[in-house]
Amino acid sequence: MSQAHTSRELLNAAGRAMARLRSRGARVHCLTNAVAQPFTANVLLAAGATPSMTVAREEIASFTNRADAVLINLGTLDPPRMAAMKAAGELCEETGKPFVLDPVMCHLSSLRRDFAVRLLQHAPAILRSNAAEAQAIEEAAPGARVSAGTGAACQVVTGEQDSIVHDGVKYQLANGHPWLSKVTAAGCAQGALMAATSAAAESLPAAAAAALLWMNVAAENAARTAQGPGSFQAALVDCIYDLEPAELIERAKLA
Amino acid sequence: MSQAHTSRELLNAAGRAMARLRSRGARVHCLTNAVAQPFTANVLLAAGATPSMTVAREEIASFTNRADAVLINLGTLDPPRMAAMKAAGELCEETGKPFVLDPVMCHLSSLRRDFAVRLLQHAPAILRSNAAEAQAIEEAAPGARVSAGTGAACQVVTGEQDSIVHDGVKYQLANGHPWLSKVTAAGCAQGALMAATSAAAESLPAAAAAALLWMNVAAENAARTAQGPGSFQAALVDCIYDLEPAELIERAKLA
Amino acid sequence: MSQAHTSRELLNAAGRAMARLRSRGARVHCLTNAVAQPFTANVLLAAGATPSMTVAREEIASFTNRADAVLINLGTLDPPRMAAMKAAGELCEETGKPFVLDPVMCHLSSLRRDFAVRLLQHAPAILRSNAAEAQAIEEAAPGARVSAGTGAACQVVTGEQDSIVHDGVKYQLANGHPWLSKVTAAGCAQGALMAATSAAAESLPAAAAAALLWMNVAAENAARTAQGPGSFQAALVDCIYDLEPAELIERAKLA
Predict the structure, then answer these.
(1) What are the backbone angles phi and psi of residue C232, rounded to the nearest 5°?
(2) How much is the CA Rg of chain A, to the nearest whole Å?
(3) pLDDT band, residue B131 (cuts 50/70/90)
(4) Which of A78, A228, A233 sits opposite B80 (nearest CB)?
(5) Which of A128, A134, B2, C24 could form a disulfide linkage to A156, CB 3.0–4.6 angstroms apart?
(6) What pLDDT score was predicted for residue B5?
(7) Where are chain C's structural domains?
(8) Whether the complex's predicted ipTM surpasses the cut of 0.90
(9) Which of residues 177 through 206 in chain C touch A, CB cutoff 8 A?
(10) Chains that contact C by 3+ CB pairs under 8 Å?
């Protein structure tokens, strides 16, 4: 178990995770929804990671095994995706490979909520959701969210402020821009970026902070030149590509 | 049944639908093709609506029931999509929820044409197609297109000029830009926008006019700054986000 | 069989293929991966081609038969895609319609490699891959890659330099930009463009050279104004739309 970071240590560790991802790369297998696939792949490429996205049951073992981290995002859930996600979750648990679980809209679908609870048994590195989704899971499986062995090791709840909870310690960050909510799959892509940083970071809170700040500071930068949400989407990818660890650390708003 | 609008009334009602969608939002469940999903979601977000896109049979009831309107677009039709569309069409008919039917390329596929005719029995609010698709449906089911109880309440046929037929009254609009045909899924996204406006408008012709003008005037604006169809696509989303009801009304070309 | 081109003849023929595609159009049915679909469609539209992308088994015959060329891209392979690809490959072989085979990541998945070898029996016009994929196929089916009747008529291997092998003659081209590797599906879209040019060119090497140069010279142009990989993606589509045959020929770097 890693010790709690001070705020300064957390930011420095996030900056190192970013630098390490850039220099070493990371293969991220993304089991994600049909709407999010292209943008997610472009965000990962801009950050220095290498995405793969096949959902085919026959290919999950080979792609999961060669990946450095896995994203499981429950948007546009369907039977082939569910079979692939179960297989990937099992493989990650067996091999100790980090995976991020993003239970998109699980508060609106009992299928997704129950499936998210089931996947939590495979001990994801990070559970990333908004507050409504987190509450739905908490009600369905009290206490399962953050615990040793029976839930996610680290929980991220996104919103106006983003929180990271790990080993009983809570960190809060307050970067971002309203136009992120106008770009479909921006949150989904952030979950994929968190999988990438979890393969590069020295602790899970650092991985979470790196992905949150990377996208949110880039969004603040992108909004300076964008004319609206369409040009913002392209500028966001540019700014993810351009952002440096020093700027990430300097611009972070710890709440 | 609403009365026929004068041209001026139609435009004013379209402007009010646009303003109402912006202020109140609308949840639109889109059963649409795999190529169109990301751009359609971004257009809806730019217009103030909230998209969902799952095709999974198990989730259709919950997502359809909480939606304010539904889009059924027949591109990349496959068995899971067909099952979802049948279920959503039935639910919309039972609950009186507006849905837009866009029978993409049904003149090139008897599977799609026959399926479109079948879905017309669930009484879509609006049937949106180009002329070739409209003709294929007319030949397969004469008179079924626009009638009380056995077809769409309102029919939109897009082209150089767009026509709206409702209760025996025809309106024609002539805005747009040639680059719209160079952006994949621009028409599909317009159908989704029409579903959103149908949840916000006081009449179906007003909903149709609002969506046609919103995208087509935005396209005229986007073309002023774009360098080609790639930058046009981003600018189109920006201009959808920016357009105001007063400009929509002022710029409308009634034919 | 076409004779070998001189380098100058190859470039002139590539320029004529580009001009012919612009003036006459070409319908390209793309059986391609879920990540690549939107960008591939936009690249084809920018080049003057008309894409269709349905994977549904029931629709393959009608869409393949009316297409001028077909792309079979093995990314995100799944059982419905495999059934569609087999049917399309058989139809293309029966009718002499050109198809391009792009065995994406077949070096990482025995399913894809074996399926690629099987599809080669339907005699694709062009096998397009990177070096690792080409090697995986060569090891699985020695000599099957380029031969009369039992493999692809023409083989393209992409990389720092792109090579085209046809009838024992090898051509090499060296255009491009590093940001192409930062745009997801740029290679997949190039394969689709190669299917389009194969419907318009007087020889397969000319078709291959036209698609390689079209995207790679456009990428060089796009990089001049782009701020990063996000704005580069939009500019790439703009520059594909703008590029003229004379510039394609003048800018070609024959290695």
Answers:
(1) -60, -40
(2) 16
(3) very high
(4) A78
(5) A128
(6) 79
(7) 7-251
(8) yes
(9) 181-185
(10) A, B
